[in-house]
Design a protein that fits this description.
about 230 residues, mainly alpha, manganese ion transmembrane transporter activity, Vacuolar iron transporter
């Protein structure tokens, strides 16, 4: 009987250990899944701003340069136009993001104050409330301006060393197309979105913006020459 009791005790101990290991493993898997999901959620917040700023800088600056290139063959005019677009766009992005994020900050701070007042009324102390990360307007403005500038540098660098007019336009179009594909793929991979669909959407949108700007500027310039 003593041996049977000892055997049963050892079996129970093994089962307890086994159950504990299973529970620990399941807990780790759940934690990993939550961390992975949390990472994607956090990543999407800055990824959206970075991809939007880079694409905006790339497309708007390239469209400006293509538009001016439609009526002016001088490389200096094209580069100055692109540089002016870079500076103006980066400042516009920074100011717009600063104002937007600051408004969001005011809303979140006001909401936290209301939540804190409610918790205090419910009998909870201030120490029991957890501080969460609030949006930083200056950081958001700097990131948007930097992303815009990075995108805008692509057509500027592509056109800087090409003296021939038609070759310069072609090089700018090719460089911008490749950059659009890269931005689309990077954004899709990091955001776990469909790669082909996302990259083609970005590419076709950039082509459309450059084509419309080039065509309208070309037509207006031609009509002025006729008059």
């Amino acid at each position: 009987m003593a041996n049977q009791a000892s055997s049963l005790s050892e079996t129970n101990n093994k089962l307890c250990v086994s159950n504990t290991d299973v529970e620990r493993q399941a807990s780790l898997e759940i934690d990993d899944e939550e961390k992975e999901e949390f990472d994607y959620t956090q990543r999407s917040q800055w990824l959206r701003a970075a991809v939007l700023g880079a694409n905006d800088g790339l497309v708007s600056t390239a469209s400006l340069m293509m538009g001016v290139g439609a009526v002016k063959e001088d490389v200096k005019v094209m580069i100055l136009t692109g540089f002016a677009g870079l500076v103006a766009g980066a400042c516009s992005m920074a100011i717009g993001e600063f104002v937007s994020v600051y408004s969001q900050l005011d809303i979140e701070v006001a909401q936290k104050k209301r939540d804190l007042a409610k918790k205090i009324r419910d009998g909870k102390s201030e120490e029991e409330t957890k501080e969460e990360n609030l949006p930083n307007p200056i950081q958001a403005a700097a990131a948007s301006a930097l992303a815009f500038s990075v995108g805008a540098m692509v057509p500027l660098l592509a056109a800087s060393f090409i003296p021939h007019y038609k070759v310069r336009l072609a090089i700018v179009a090719v460089a911008v197309s490749l950059a659009l594909l890269v931005f689309g793929v990077v954004g899709a991979v990091m955001g776990k979105a469909p790669v082909v669909r996302s990259s083609m959407r970005v590419l076709i949108g950039g082509w459309f913006a450059m084509a419309v700007t080039f065509g309208l500027t070309k037509s207006i310039g031609s009509s002025e020459r006729i008059n």
